[in-house]
């Protein structure tokens, strides 16, 4: 049984996601939704997606009964009204915006963190946080699990400027808040700082995320072992995720590590690992959620 979904948003994230899901045997994309008839993202899928909608969520009202869930790749400002609409219709939501409305989740930590569990109801909202949140989560978890006295956490991500669309640029403040919130959730530390650099270099740079955590003590051997296990799991849905700087003591009392994400190239070239990691994670969570309730017969 395929998962019938609609995608809200026809920018970089929505376009990359649609290309991904069209090739995924588990999904059936019934509609992609935008706000402009001349949208390049919408026109790209003419003849490939059965319903090309250019007047927002009201344009898919006749399709709602056929949907299982919705991916929201619009903006943090619009997500609440989208969720209010679809939850009343018993649809699950995968939020790819940094709205902080849904439950923060990253697939690789579902079995490792008590706070990261699948929803209790079919109509449930999952926040995929941000690309920086998804790329840093494994590092945050592994380091914090085997460290004591955590007092500061910093997450710095650098992405190619070409991969950041208008919605991403408008939502920078929300990006920072959502990423910092995830860092606190995972590490238990409330002194967090998130940084996002839109690098204009030509040729474009690959996505990199560096985590710096101030600690009293840490066990690097156990950190690396835990991290290796998580990366193996991440690579099942994001093959381009790798640790390029292993956890180490960068200065007295600070543990640092860096991950790089090479994109799968569904839409933009491989430098757009930021699109790849959040969309791959979103698809993974949607699949897990749907299968949970299908198994239960809901």
Automatic annotation (TrEMBL):
Family annotation (InterPro entries): Acetaldehyde_dehydrogenase (IPR003361), Acetylaldehyde_DH_C (IPR015426), NAD(P)-bd_dom_sf (IPR036291)
CDD domains documented for this protein: ALDH_C
Domain Acetaldehyde dehydrogenase C-terminal: start-end pairs: 131-269
Gene3D superfamilies: Dihydrodipicolinate Reductase, domain 2, NAD(P)-binding Rossmann-like Domain
Gene Ontology molecular functions: acetaldehyde dehydrogenase (acetylating) activity
SUPFAM superfamilies, sorted: Glyceraldehyde-3-phosphate dehydrogenase-like, C-terminal domain (SSF55347), NAD(P)-binding Rossmann-fold domains (SSF51735)
NCBIfam families: PRK08300.1 (NF006157)
Protein name, per record: Unannotated protein
Native source species: freshwater metagenome
